[in-house]
Amino acid sequence: MISLNENHLFYLNKDYVINKESFEVHFQQEEISLTPKEFSMIALFLEYQNKVFSREHLINTVWGFNVSIEDRTIDSHVRNLREKLRKSGFPADNYLQTVWGIGYKWQKSIDSDG
């Protein structure tokens, strides 16, 4: 279950913490280095778990309106984000899901550990 405390820390579970003030992500007390765009994407996914985000919505939310980038830029950032999470030992494939033909979502876990 995700929770937010007064320090702007999101706890996905006991091992996974994201700090929205310092732009840091930790898994099992080790920092995962993310780009600002990757961080913005994962923060959005975690804040709205199970919500499907279209590529267009991610572009507008993370990059802003009136930018000229291709939809595949989102795919590249999601691929990089998954790889960084996997390298840290986090089971990214269980959470960061592709919704074919639409976009991406963070699958909320059905167990109490996240």
UniProtKB/TrEMBL annotation:
<dbReference type="InterPro" id="IPR016032">
    <property type="entry name" value="Sig_transdc_resp-reg_C-effctor"/>
</dbReference>
<dbReference type="Pfam" id="PF00486">
    <property type="entry name" value="Trans_reg_C"/>
</dbReference>
<dbReference type="GO" id="GO:0003677">
    <property type="term" value="F:DNA binding"/>
</dbReference>
<feature type="domain" description="OmpR/PhoB-type">
    <location>
        <begin position="8"/>
        <end position="108"/>
    </location>
</feature>
<protein>
    <submittedName>
        <fullName>DNA-binding response OmpR family regulator</fullName>
    </submittedName>
</protein>
<dbReference type="InterPro" id="IPR001867">
    <property type="entry name" value="OmpR/PhoB-type_DNA-bd"/>
</dbReference>
<dbReference type="InterPro" id="IPR039420">
    <property type="entry name" value="WalR-like"/>
</dbReference>
<keyword id="KW-0804">Transcription</keyword>
<keyword id="KW-0805">Transcription regulation</keyword>
<keyword id="KW-0238">DNA-binding</keyword>
<feature type="DNA-binding region" description="OmpR/PhoB-type">
    <location>
        <begin position="8"/>
        <end position="108"/>
    </location>
</feature>
<dbReference type="InterPro" id="IPR036388">
    <property type="entry name" value="WH-like_DNA-bd_sf"/>
</dbReference>
